[in-house]
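Page 47, continued from p. 46.
Same chain as before, 593 aa.
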Amino acid sequence: MIAPVFFRAAAVAIAIAAAVDPAVTLTGVTRARIAIVAQPSAPDAAAAAARIARDLGRDFDVVHNLVSDAAAAVVVGDRYPADPLPDSLIVATVTTPAAAGGARIVRAIAPREVPPATAIHIAADVFGGAVGETTQLTARIAEVEVGRTSHSWSAAGERWRAALDVVPVGEPPFVVRLDPTTPERAPAAASTRAAAGKGADLVVHLARSPIRVEFYDPRPSWTSTFVRRALESDARFHVEALTFSARGIAARTSGAVALTDARLDEFDAVVAGGLERLTEADVRALERYMRDREGGVVLLPDQRVDRGPARRLLPDAAERLLERPARLRSVAGSTALQASELLIPRDIAPGTEVIAETGDAAIEPVIASIPHGGGRLIVSGALDAWRFRALDNGAFDRYWQSTIAGLALDTAPNVDLVVTPPVVRPNESAGVIVRVRSRRPATLTGSNQGSDNDAASVEATVDGRPMRLVPGAETGVFHGRMTAAASGRSVVDVRAFGVDGAAQSARRVVQVLADAQAPPADAIAPLSMLASSHRGIDASADRLDEVARFVRRAVAAPRAAVVRRPMRSAWWMLPFAACLSAEWWRRRRLGLR
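Result:
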């Protein structure tokens, strides 16, 4: 028979455990949380999001807003969301047709400046066309049509990369107006350009002329010599050269300077040959020119460089010797080169742009543009292309003229003035950013800010009226706001005074148009780019099953640790009362008190 003391001990044990309140940690598989967001501006987005939620609800906890603990997200809509998403979040997208219908420009690029008598290359991303329709992209300058191209849409969610080369007409700055239209639709649709927000206005200024380029050769180089002659034959360039034929003996033009000279910053690009003879000071000067001046440097090796200070500027490459010259294909579609001695890079650094590659079955880069600080570094692996310079009607000269011109035009001036947006409506405000590049940028300040530092200053005016500048977080950068004129154009002038009293200036002419338009802020990129940048997929509204399958593959059920306190359950009152009652009952049966 069970003694009464047993029931009493059990009741006491329950009471002690309740007082201690022990914690028990359990680890197990839980349901991942998936966020499904439907953009209200897109028709049918809510229905598509509801269908995905029903499909994924069997395996995941579905929420309809972005939460911090979401394992993945599905965005349904017609445009890139305004709020940024965490880089670590897996995002799948469902692109639905735009509410307004018709194609729109989501990104447009044009050079800030072009030299005189030079065509303007324009690239535009067009998105949102209906399947089966044809969209025409028209470019106009001063109401004159200067270019047109078209595209037929074959799939939902397709993005069209359009390219146009237009000839500038009229007086600079040139306002290039891009309009995507659909001839199959009613003609009235094209007249609602400003309200629809589908086009874009681009402003291209006339480049500072001529383009200043310095050639520096620590020893004579055939490659550098013939590239220099190609530029000297082009009226767009002003070429200076410094070539050492022996130690301490150099041939130089009147304006040439050493790489370590501060006046190097006055050049738009620097070309160097004879790389194995570059000194440590030369390499440091080139690095400073790209980093601080944000300039462009072209390296023209004529042999493989395995040692020396220049080695750290060059990518690791393998040398290839061919029996017959190979035709190098230009990625941008410009004139091709021929060469039989090639340097093929083994590794491509992040951000590198290949500008010429072999055209055979095994496509390999030969000439590449590498980011270096704020500037660019072009390295040519076509070692003996100069030997074939007479072929293809002077393709060698044309290639290097266009390549170095493009590099130099991307180099901002020492005093850089940017107005955003570049085209404004009457009496509309615009942002002004002034950036002063100097060897001692920390000494520069806004003179109209009441600073005590009188060593250097920056002044700005709009249509002759002073404009207030505020120093930015980055050294040498100043911000301001301007109000456009009622019509015509506004002129922004900036002067920067250095510590030596020398002044540099910059001017921007801002066009004032009643129907000025830039790409919408919420349509800078199509929704599909969100998926590609977050390791996801993009699907159309008729392929929702693919999104559900992707989420199931990409998201694993997480394991979570859960802390339990079992003694806090009210059910423990039942065994506690039962033990006390059994103890009382047994004591009475045994005649105990």
